[in-house]
C-alpha cells in the first residue's frame, strides 16, 4: 500500500492551492490570460483526479466493446495496449466514414451503442456535470 499522501490527495491539494491562493490574485484585464490558464490547469487536475478514481475499468470496457466489434469484422482485433485501442478507434472512425454503420446497416446498432457508452465514459472523466444535467 502506498504511503500518504496519495496521488489523488496531491492533485486535490494542488487544485485547492490554485483555486484558493493563486486564482484570487489574478484580477483585472492584465491577468485575464493567466487566469484562463490557471482555470485550464485546475480543470486538467480535476480530470486526472476523476480518471484516477475510475481506475482502468473504462479502458477495459472500451477494449472489450472494441473486441466485440472486431468479432463482427468491423475492425481488426484490438489487443491490450492503449495504442491498440486508439488505433482501433481510428479504424472504426474510418469505417464509419465509409458508411459501414449507417442507419439500416447490420452494424448500426452495435456501433451506436459503442459510441454512446464510450462518450458517456469519457464525459464522466471530463465533464460529469453534463451527465447529471441529463444533457445529450
What value does the Rg take, in angstroms? 20 Å
Sheet/helix structural class: mainly alpha
The percentage of residues in β strands lies in under 5%
Give the SSE string.
HHHHHH
Poorly predicted tracts of residues: none
Helix content: 55-70%
Number of helices: 6
Overall mean confidence score, pLDDT = 90
Biggest beta sheet attributes = none
Principal-axes geometry comes out as elongated
Distance between the termini: 39 Å
- The counted number of beta strands is 0
Strand-helix topology:
Layout: H1 7-22, H2 32-54, H3 57-71, H4 82-97, H5 108-126, H6 128-132
Features:
136 residues, mainly alpha, 0% strand, DUF6285 domain-containing protein, DUF6285, single chain
Report what the structure shows:
Residues 32-129 form the DUF6285 domain. InterPro entries: DUF6285. The chain has 136 residues and is mainly alpha-helical. Helices cover 69% and strands 0% of the residues. It has helices at residues 7-22, 32-54, 57-71, 82-97, 108-126, 128-132. Helix 1 (7-22) runs antiparallel to helix 2 and helix 3 (57-71) packs antiparallel against helix 5 (108-126).
Brief rundown of the structure:
InterPro entries: DUF6285. Helix 1 (7-22) packs antiparallel against helix 2.
